[in-house]
Design goal:
single chain; mainly alpha; 16 helices; dynein intermediate chain binding; Dynein axonemal heavy chain 3; Dynein_HC_stalk; coiled coil; dynein light intermediate chain binding
Length: about 375
């Protein structure tokens, strides 16, 4: 009966109050409640699912004060009477031990959770500092690479200066000897001094006029692409005269070829199919230096041939708006930086490529598509 009473107390089942046979009030009787408890077919399930983590303090105090010290409340003693009661006795004692241990473990669990939370917070801070350190390290590496490149460039320039100085000293000695001996061989070193002097004078003249010449070049690139050769010459002459009247230093007879042209590059253009006349060369300079995509009115196909020859090593793509896959080809060219020729363009432009042609910005995979398209195909 003691075992069933302890189980009822543990589960919080109240006893029946019956008159004390000794005539001194009432006594607590657990027999009736014990029978009801055992009659419950879910009795064993209630023991398995018992809320052992939240046993009231008063109940545990009563268990420890009344039942645990009782020598008869021992599984070894009770098993001689009832195997079933032995199991219930073990269950009550196990609940008491668990409650006693949990009172020790619970604060430690709380401290552990607090420590883990603090650790997670500190790890987040550590990871943030590591990311900052990595960013600084990457920046430092970039600066070191730039410094190494600049140092190498400086060394190359210093070597070039030394070589030029030595060449100049040797040339001055040779020219001095020729002058002393009054020797001026035709086509020999006697003409080097004159040639160098003329070159220096020309360079000084170009440097003096660089502001106005660049200003006029910018005007030609920005505005004169669509005009005829006669109107270009007339407009350029008017601008040239206006700059001179305003005191802006520029050449008396401005030439776009003289300012922005390079003989070697122009020669390669001619080999690729660009006509040799000045108007065509001016067009090539405009196409190569203008920020906007060039629209070429090309009835004879000369510009088309020239561009294809110049870009044949860069995987040039040729598309038409009538092609079914022109957008896919264009997207691939943007991705890999390939030059593109859009042929047979009409008076109206497809809005789907308007953002690219008008250099309006859009974004793809966090990378500026237009910027990639304008930077990668440098020669288009």
């Amino acid at each position: 009966m003691t075992v069933m009473e302890a189980v009822c107390v543990m589960k919080g089942i109240k006893p029946d109050r019956k008159p004390d046979p000794g005539g001194r009030g009432y006594i607590e009787d657990y027999w009736g409640p014990s029978l009801k408890m055992l009659a419950d077919f879910k009795f064993l399930d209630t023991l398995r699912t018992f809320d052992k983590d939240n046993i009231p303090v008063a109940i545990m105090k009563r268990i420890r004060d009344k039942y645990i010290p009782d020598r008869d409340f021992d599984p070894d003693v009770i098993k001689n009477v009832s195997m079933a009661c032995e199991g219930l006795c073990k269950w009550v004692r196990a609940m008491e031990v668990y409650d006693r241990v949990i009172k020790i473990v619970a604060p430690k669990k709380a401290k552990l959770a607090e420590a883990e939370a603090e650790l997670a917070l500190q790890m987040d801070k550590l990871n943030e500092k590591r990311a900052q350190l990595q960013a600084v390290t990457d920046k430092l590496q970039t600066l070191n690479d730039e410094f190494a490149a600049k140092t190498k460039k400086k060394k190359e320039l210093e070597d070039a200066i030394d070589a030029t100085r030595q060449q100049l000293e040797r040339a001055e000695k040779l020219i001095g000897k020729l002058v002393i001996n009054n020797v001026y061989p035709v086509g020999g070193l006697g003409g080097e001094k004159t040639r160098w002097s003329e070159t220096a004078e020309n360079l000084t003249h170009l440097l003096t006029n660089v502001i106005g010449d660049v200003l006029l070049s910018a005007g030609v690139l920005a505005y004169q692409g669509a005009f005829t050769v006669d109107y270009r010459q007339e407009l350029t002459a008017m601008w040239n005269k206006r700059c001179l009247s305003l005191g802006i230093p520029c050449a008396q007879n401005f030439s776009l070829i003289a300012t922005l042209g390079e003989a070697v590059v122009i020669r390669s253009w001619n080999i690729a199919g660009l006509p040799v006349d000045n108007f065509s060369v001016d067009n090539g300079i405009i196409v190569s230096n203008a920020r906007r995509w060039p629209l070429m009115i090309d009835p004879q196909g000369q510009a088309n041939k020239w561009v294809k020859n110049m870009e044949q090593g860069n995987r040039i793509c040729v598309i038409k708006l009538s092609d079914a896959n022109y957008m896919r080809v264009l997207e691939s060219a943007i991705q890999f930086g390939s030059p593109v020729i859009l042929e047979n363009l009409g008076e109206e432009i497809d809005p789907s490529i308007g953002t690219i042609l008008y250099l309006k910005h859009s974004h793809c995979s966090s990378v500026d598509v237009v910027e990639r398209f304008t930077l990668l195909p440098d020669k288009f």
